[in-house]
Amino acid sequence: MWGLLLALATFAPAVDLGLGTPGTSVPGLTPPATTKAPVSTLAPSSNPAQPPSGKDNGTSEQSPRIRIIKKKKVIVKKRKKLTTPRPPVTTRSPVITTPAGALDLPEEKEPGCPPLGLESLRVSDSQLEASSSQSYGLGPHRGRLNIQSGLEDGDLYDGAWCAEPQDAEPWLQVDARHPTRFSGIITQGRNSVWRYDWVTSYKVQFSNDSRTWWGSRNRSSGMDAVFPANSDPETPVLNLLPEPQVARFIRLLPQTWLQGGNSCLRAEILACPVSDPEDLIHKAPELGSSDPLDFRHHNYKAMRKLMKEVNEQCPNITRIYSIGKSHQGLKLYVMEMSDHPGQHELGEPEVRYVAGMHGNEALGRELLLLLMQYMCREYLRGDPRVTRLLTETRIHLLPSMNPDGYETAFHRGSELVGWAEGRWNWQGIDLNHNFADLNTPLWEAEDDGLVPDTVPNHHLPLPTYYTLPNATVAPETRAVIQWMQRIPFVLSANLHGGELVVSYPFDMTRTPWAARELTPTPDDAVFRWLSTVYASTNRAMQDPDRRPCHNQDFSLNGNIINGADWHTVPGSMNDFSYLHTNCFEITVELSCDKFPHESELPQEWENNKDALLTYLEQVRMGIAGIVRDKDTELGIADAVISVDGINHDVTTAWGGDYWRLLTPGDYMVTASAEGYHSVTRSCRVTFEEGPVPCNFHLTKTPKQRLRELLASGAKVPPDLRRRLERLRGQKN
Q1: I need a labelling partner for 556 at 20 to 30 A (CA). Which of 75, 184, 533, 615 fits?
Q2: What spans are recorded as compositionally biased (Low complexity) (predicted)?
Q3: Which long-range contacts (CB under 8 A, 24 or more apart) does 542-546 make?
Q4: Average pLDDT over every residue of 717-722
C-alpha cells in the first residue's frame, strides 16, 4: 500500500529554498487554489529562512545553498515503484549524528512507517502542543489530517491549528510518548467554508526531552531542510525526511504561508515504533486481533481473489454472484452466506450489508471481507453463534458498491487520498443522493389526507422521471434497486466512514430546504433500537475517553442520531429502502478516518466484530409468519401486514412469508390481500429472542371464488350462486 501511496502522492522532497524570513507570506498565491502548484513556483529570495532563535537546534548560521530539483525528474523516479505488485520494503537509513541526549539504537531494515495516529485519534489531544493558537477551536488538538470544521468559523470546532498572527516563530509539536523513528510528514491547510489558510513551507525539529532540539538536515548541504508544503487547503502533501530520526517529540515549524492568510495546518506524522533489545523503553500497546484473517486493503482484483478463496474454503455455505456493473465495467460482487445458498427458504429472513457506496470510505469494504472470512472459519470450527446465524438467516455482503471510486482512492493511498477523492462514482455522482426521492410524494399525499386509502404508505412506485432513459441514475444505483426488488430483504446496514455514529431514517428533512430537522419515521422506536444495538456493541463508540471526530459530539446522545437531524440527504438509500421495500436500513459511520492505514485494520475489526454479528441477529426481533389461503394452504404473495398505530405496512414474499420488525409490546396486526377477507389478531412481542410467530389464514371473498371458477371453466356451486344472489339483492 505504501508503494502506491508514495508513488502517487503529491511528492515534495526536502529542498533548501530561500522562502523569506519566518512569519512572511508567499506572494503570487491567490485563493481559492484548486490544484497543487509545482515546487518550482516557490521562487528563492535573498533572505534564507533561519531556525528559531534561542533554541539549540543543531543548525549552522551560514546561508544555505539552493538546490533546484525538477518536478518531472521526481515523478519519473517515483513511478518506477509501480512495477512492484506489493508495497516495497525500504532500507532504514542510518540515523544522523544528533546532539547530546539523542538515542543511538541499532540499525535494522523495516517497511515504510505507518501514521502515528493524529487522524485516527490514537494520538490524544494531550499529546499535541503549539507555540500559540488563535482560539480554542484553532488549538493544536485541531491540527489533525482531514479534520473537518463546523459550519461557523470561530466556534469550538474549527478546521486546523492556527498560530496567532503575531507569533513570529510558530510551531506545532507532537509527543509520541516513547522513542519513535519519524520518517515523514503529511500536511494540509485549513478546512473552512469562509477562509483560505495554508502553510507553504516548514522545517522539522526533534527532541527527547522537549528542551534540546535538533533539525532535519539535507544530506548534500548539511543545512536545515525546508520542506515545501501546500498550495491549496485540502490536497495532502507528503514529505519524507532526508534521514529518519529517532526521538520522542517532533515539531513542525511553519516558515511561510499564503499571502493574506494565517499559519494554519493539519498534519499526520509517519512513524515506526523503536525496538529496545534490553526492554528498557516502555512500548505502546500493539493494535491487533487474535483472528488469523487477511488484514490489508484489497483492490478490485485482490477482493475478487479473496472472495473466491472464501467460497472455495466454505462451498456449502457461500455463493458469489454479481448484481450488475459499475460505469467502468467492474462487477458488483455479493457474497451470500447461508446453509442453503442460492435459494430463499420459506420463513428465513434475508439480511444485507452494503459497503463502499463512497469509494474513499474504505473501512466498511475491509470489514465485510473480514466478516466473510471470519464466518467461514468459525462455521468450520463449529461456533454455535455463527452456525445459528447461517442456519436461520440468509446473509448478503456487498463489499464495494462503488468500485470505480475505490480504485481511485486506493491508488492515491490511505493517507494521501484526502477527504473527498474517490467519493463519487466515475460519472461524478454521489450514490447516496442518487436514489429516487419517495419522501416528497408520500408527505404530499399525507398532507392531502390520501394515505393510506388512496396512496399506500409502503412500496411506493418509482417516479416516472426516474425511469426515463435520460434520467441521471448511476448504473451502480440501478443495480442495487433491482437487487432490492428481487430479494425480500428485511434488515440492512449501509457502512460509511469519516465519523463515529449510527444514523437512522428519515435522512431527508420534511420541511423543504431545511438543512437539518428531526424527521422520524413511523417506525422510529425500531430504528432507534437498531441504531443503539450497533452503537452499544461497537468498542470505539463506547470508549468513554474518546474525543469527537470533527465538529459534533455524538456520544452525548448515545452515538446515534436521526439522519435528517444531522444533515438532510435527499435520495438516500436508507429512505428509499424503507419506502420502496420491506427493508429497514441504517447507516453506520465506522471511523473518524475514512481510509485507515492497514496497520489499523486489526483494531478496527475488533472494534466492530461483535457489533456486526449482533446487528445481524436483530432480524429476529418482532413478529414473523406465513399468510396462507385457508382452502388450499398455499402461501399468499403480496399480502399486506398492517400494525395498528404504525402508519407503515410490509408485504409478504412470494411464498407468503413475512417479517415485521417491532419492539416489545402488544400489537393488533391485520393481514389483507386482494380477493380475501382481512383477518386481525393480537400478537405479543416479548423481550425473549424471537421472532414471535404470527400466522394468518385468509378466506377468499365470493367474488374472488367466482372469478377463479369462471376462469377454470367450472360450474358455479349452488351455495355460492345463492350467496351471490343475496348480495345482489342487498345491493339493489
Answers
A1: 615
A2: 89-99
A3: 546/121, 546/500
A4: 76
Alpha helix segments (H runs only) across 573-623: 573-580, 601-617
Q: Average of pLDDT values for 322-344?
A: 97
Q: Are 621 and 661 in contact (CB under 8 A)?
A: yes
Catalytic residue IDs: 589
State the pLDDT confidence band at 721, using cuts at 50, 70 and 90.
confident
What is the C-alpha end-to-end distance of the chain, expressed in Å? 81
Contact 652, 676 (CB under 8 A): no
CATH of the domain spanning 300-501+578-617, picked from 3.90.230.10, 1.10.260.40, 3.40.630.10, 3.30.70.3400: 3.40.630.10
Question: Strand 237-258 to strand 172-188: parallel, antiparallel, or no bridges (unpaired)?
Answer: antiparallel
Rg for the chain (alpha carbons), in Å? 30
Is the CATH code 2.60.40.1120 the one for domain 623-700?
Answer: yes
Write down the pLDDT at residue 220. Answer: 84
Q: Report the distance separating Cα 347 and Cα 344, nearest Å.
A: 9
Peptide bond into 435 cis (omega under 30): no
Contact 116, 596 (CB under 8 A): no
Residue with cell 500536511: 187
The half-sphere exposure of 306 on its side-chain side, counting CA atoms within 13 A, is 25
Give the pairing type, strands 560-562 and 394-398: unpaired
What residue ranges do the domains of the chain occupy?
Answer: 125-273, 300-501+578-617, 623-700
Q: What is the pLDDT of residue 690?
A: 82
Q: What is the tens place of the pLDDT at every residue in 181-209?
A: 999 999 999 999 889 999 999 999 999 99
Q: Quick check: 76 and 231 in contact, CB under 8 A?
A: no
Spatial neighbors of 497 by CB under 8 A, at least 6 apart, are 358, 361, 362, 363, 364, 589, 590, 591, 593, 594, 595
For residue 467 the three cell numbers come to 425511469
Matching residue, cell 513542525: 252
Three-state DSSP class for 726?
helix
**What SS3 state is found at 221?**
coil
Query: 376, 387, 619: which is closest to 491 by C-alpha?
Result: 619
Q: Between the CA of residue 178 and those of 96, 123, 250, 272, 569, what are the distances in Å?
A: 19, 12, 12, 11, 44
Is the separation of the CB atoms in 187 and 199 below 8 Å? Answer: yes
261-311 confidence digits (pLDDT tens): 999 999 999 999 997 655 554 555 556 899 999 999 999 999 999 999 999
Q: Is 684 helix (H, G, I), strand (E, B) or coil?
A: strand
Residue 650 is classified by DSSP as E
Contacts of 333 by beta carbon, 8 Å cutoff, 6+ apart: 303, 304, 307, 320, 321, 322, 398, 399, 400
Average pLDDT over residues 118-124: 95
Closest CA to 237 of 72, 11, 2: 11
**In this structure, which CATH number among 3.20.20.140, 2.60.120.260, 2.40.50.100, 2.102.10.10 belongs to the domain 125-273?**
2.60.120.260
d(CA 703, CA 705) in angstroms, rounded, equals 5
Query: CA 198 → CA 202, 232, 496, 711, 724, distances in Å?
Result: 11, 7, 29, 77, 83
Same fold, 125-273 and 300-501+578-617: no
- Helix, strand, coil percentages, rounded to 5, for the chain: 25, 25, 50
C-alpha cell at 249: 517529540
